[in-house]
Amino acid sequence: MLKMFDYPPVWLVGALGLARAEVWALGRGYDLPAVTMLGNLLFWTGLAILGLAALSFLRARTTIVPHRDPDALITTGLYRLSRNPIYLADLLILGGLALVWGSVAGLVLVPVLGRILTQRFIRPEEARLRAGFGAEADAYFARTRRWL
Known about the structure:
This protein is mainly alpha-helical. It has four helices and no strands. Helix 1 runs parallel beside helix 3 and helix 3 (about 85-100) packs antiparallel against helix 4 (about 105-145).
């Protein structure tokens, strides 16, 4: 039953919920206009990255679902710069909204979510890519960083 909830967007929504609950229960931890502007910039950048990366999956006609075997190795577009732009976008969205909301817990959850995404999704995905694409995947991993 719980496996059906083990997807990156669910983890992101959970972290956002905790950040929002902190602000609701304790109030804003800080309220600075420059920080709010930075938060908005990070949030919108994250959404843009998410959308562009998702389009790459549509163009390649492969699955975006992390627990499935891909039909293609995407190495173009944003994937030239990062092997995981969607997960990077998740962290930007969480960090951005934490800054906008004034959530200290949300900021603390950014590296926690990064660790969860790495352990639960990125490493298994990399193993599937190696199994499916062999030397081509190894070459891609060697020339492209995991995050940035």
